[in-house]
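ugh ok fine here u go
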Amino acid sequence: MTVLISHTTALWILCSPRLRAPLGACRGAVGLGTRRELADRLPEIAKALGWDVAGTGAIDILVRPGSNRRRTRLAYPHAWSRALPEGALLSLCDGVAVASPELAYLQMAEYLDVIELAQLASSLCGGYFPSADARGFVDRQPLTSIERIGDFLAKLRGTRNVTKARRALACAHDLARSPMETTTAMLLSMSRRRGGYGLPRPQLNHRVELPKDVAAAAGTGHFLVDLFYRRAGKPGGVAIEYLGRAYHKDVARDITRELLLKRAGCPVVDVTITQIVRSELRNQLVGDIAHEIGYRLRKGTQRIRERRNDLLNRILPHPSQIAPDGSVTWEKPSWALPAELAGQVG
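structure:
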């Protein structure tokens, strides 16, 4: 391999449906490329991705330590000196490799803090990715998992930012399908020290199997629920359903679904953006969830409340971003897909 495309650009490329086919892994150390090699290969790279060469911005690439790292219109070079383990690279086309989701995540730890990294990990391991278009995110299959990222980081112990990346990974979640699911799960399960409520980690988009009589009434053998908790000392579990306007427009269907889930031993707690944003409603909501799952909430302190406010300011939308109908315009992170690429996903 000569040209190695890294972190931000790699994340955009990995979201492309053109890369859903199995890709070859590269082993060990690689010969890193240069800005000149990138310029020579750019037409081939753009063709492989279906990108417009003229509209392509600076591409993040890895270069050898000591190489010229001056940014140009085409290239944003970053130095890398360590050997890369198996699975770190994916082949894009002859002579061009792309950082894997796991390597791109580690590289992004240089630029993001722990909360931002946890949000990035959740989107890499979920069914969505932030974008700069009107909706704010695109749907796509998970690119990796919390377990796979953790295993990858274990191969690079001692590498810069690995410890930070592992701390962030502990706050992230698999299988979220929207930024709001990630936000809700992080808020509920992050430690009180970091501003969360300290509840057990929920399972996102969990499959609840239905008994035969319920399945007959439902017309399906299972339901997927946004967040799922096991109940301490009791059979079944508790479903947490986020009532976003884009996904819950059929009220009668939603009510029927909740009744059937309850018959299946899985009561539902509904969550709206208003409940999450307003402190008195949020605290009542969390108390209800804790009661349902048999978890005893610890009393908050002034310091805990201050940390929680800091976290809320980081992960919740501002009231100005919430429309009267409950829809949310999410703030776009620095690594969000550009609007012109968002249409290529899905």
